[in-house]
Amino acid sequence: MGFSRAVRKGAHVAVAGTAPIGDGGTNVARGDVYGQTVRCLDIAEAALKAAGASLEDVVRTRIMLTDVTRWKEAARAHGERFAEIRPVTTFVEVSRFIDPEWLVEIEADAVVD
Q1: pTM above 0.85, yes or no
Q2: Region of 15 on the Ramachandran plot (φ > 0 left; ψ -120 to 50 alpha; else beta)
Q3: pLDDT in tens, 19-65
Q4: Which of 21, 22, 47, 109 is the most exposed, fewest CB within 10 Å of its CB?
Q5: Is residue 30 a contact partner of residue 39, using CB atoms and an 8 Å limit?
Q6: Can you say whether the dihedral through the CA atoms of 65, 34, 105, 23 is positive or negative?
Q7: Strand pairing report for 104-111 and 12-18
Q8: Closest of 90, 44, 93 to residue 66, by C-alpha
Q9: Residues 6+ apart with CB under 8 A from 83
């Protein structure tokens, strides 16, 4: 389909929506927004590293949830990684993802100095 997890153009890195998929291709943390958010952040962090960036370079995150009333669970995982970095962050509710077991997806944008 012509898809990249992350693309770097100059100093800018964009990380596509990361879903809670384990290394073997299975879904992780079924029913657990916090656990799925942690997995999404793990994937995003690895993609940033592969593009020559790090979490410290992140300037924006977008957290998409199928139930925005559970935003505090995602925020807790986000805060564990970004409390000191403090990127701008948007939480949005979506009707669904490709896989109905996914409760959250995360995108990130970074600027490498």
Answers
A1: yes
A2: beta
A3: 999 999 999 999 999 999 999 999 999 999 999 999 999 999 999 99
A4: 22
A5: no
A6: negative
A7: antiparallel
A8: 93
A9: none
41 Cβ neighbours under 8 A, 6+ residues apart: 18, 77, 78, 81, 106
> Which phi and psi (to 5°) does residue 87 adopt?
-70, 160
- CA-based Rg of the chain, rounded to a whole angstrom? 13
Indicate the length of the chain as a whole number. Answer: 113
The token duo for 58 is: 């992140």
Q: Please name the residue that has the structure tokens 């986000």.
A: 78
Structure tokens at 66: 């199928």
Structure tokens at 44: 């995003």
How many Cβ atoms are within 10 Å of 74's Cβ, its own excluded?
25
